[in-house]
Amino acid sequence: MTEDGQPQRHAALEELCGQLESILWGRAAGALLAAGLPAGQWDVILLPVWDWRLPAMEIGRKGLDHDSGDALLMPVRLDWGGNDALLRLADQAGPPPSYRWTAHSMGWDDEGELQWNSSRSGSHQGGRDGIVISGNKSAPGIRRRTVEDLDELVRAGRQSQWQLLFSLEPFVTSTVRKAHSAVSHEIGELTGRFQSVLHDTGIEQIVNVMMVGEPTAGGIDAPSVPRLLEQCLRHDRFTKVDPLMFLRRNLRRDAEDQVRRAIGDPRVGPKVRRIARQMPGATLEEIVAAYRLEHPQDKLSTARAEAALQVGSDPMARSVALDPETNRGAR
């Protein structure tokens, strides 16, 4: 709880969401500058990307303070009609404008209106279950800037994007190491012994691929981390998940895919090896036949099955050889 008895925000999410908001404001400012500014005296209105509320869905202990057990405020993504609409121009001599928002996030499904009044303060009108959020104190994302600040908003957004990208590198490294360990153990279940399938250098290469991509015949392969950060900027991405959970879940998936790709393990590899473990002494053809009965939609070929059973490791790691003919006892 804060000093005035209000719930606190989830600290890690507050930092992440603040960076995402800065990126979005910067891009909206850049789009406005590219389109050209109209003549006149204008206020630049920055509409908030997030509203902070108690979740209206079950999220487990993530929604509780680890020390006190108090419920934490979570980010609810607001949509103002597209990301470019997050930044508006208000005529200083004109009537006070109003802006409508919708929210479909963290279990919430509601809408409302922001009125920008003559005193230059914003207020939300609306909300579910009688909740009304009003004034700059409760909605600090509502801000006023001048047109001279647009270039600074663009620079701040770019800086936030780079800071966020590189702040994720330690987490990506940890995620790749965990994925490598899980894949190594899964393959080891077939041989009966644990072997690292990649050397540290191979793990570092995967981290680099996920962070900045890798050269291909057509250019640079799109790296996972920037691609996922772009997904985090979508207003409809967090209907059932918060930004941190979205990143963690998808980075785990991409890390495992990259480890398997590095060792030549086909996507169906785990399922092939599971069936092989259930059929000790079976030939490759018998394993393929059993797999096709269980997963006919996969259309498993003998070549892919053999690749799954003879997973090649990084040359700098210990070798992994799962020969279906000579290592029958291991299955």
Features:
single chain, 331 residues, alpha+beta, 5-stranded antiparallel β-sheet, 3-stranded antiparallel β-sheet, 10 helices, 43% helix
Quick one: how many beta strands? 10
Using only C-alpha atoms, the radius of gyration works out to 26 Å
Strand order of the largest sheet: 2-3-5-6-7
Spans where pLDDT lies below 50 across 5 or more residues: 120-140, 318-331
* Alpha-beta classification: alpha+beta
Describe the global form: elongated
Strand-residue proportion: 15-25%
Mean pLDDT: 84
Strand and helix order: HEEEEEEEHEHHHEEHHHHH
Q: Count helical runs.
A: 10
The percentage helix is 40-55%
Largest sheet: 5 strands, antiparallel
Q: How many angstroms separate the termini?
A: 56 Å
Write the SSE topology:
Elements: H1 11-35, E1 42-46, E2 50-53, E3 74-79, E4 87-91, E5 98-105, E6 108-116, E7 122-126, H2 135-138, E8 143-146, H3 150-167, H4 169-191, H5 200-212, E9 215-216, E10 219-220, H6 224-232, H7 243-262, H8 269-278, H9 284-294, H10 302-309
Antiparallel strand pairs: 1-4, 1-8, 2-3, 3-5, 5-6, 6-7, 9-10
Helix pairs in contact: 1-3, 4-5, 4-7, 4-8, 5-7, 6-7, 8-9, 8-10
